[in-house]
Amino acid sequence: MDKSDSAESRPQLPRWRAYTWGVLAALTCPCHLPVLAAVLAGTTAGAFIGDHWGVVAVALAAQFFLSLARAIRAFRSSP
What we know:
5 helices
């Protein structure tokens, strides 16, 4: 099987899906956690972030890497 055959057999995803995954990856980047905590200050979510900083950082890092992988995959297979 040629390299070109495998590239043609993959389904083509719409470009907007790639951008959606990219935006989600940017929003869940762990480096934005202090900004997220400041924006949500005074809310229940902000209190949870303040009390469970480590859990939130691990959860955001996992979501970030998952979204980043999906964005890269979507950009590679988009038309």
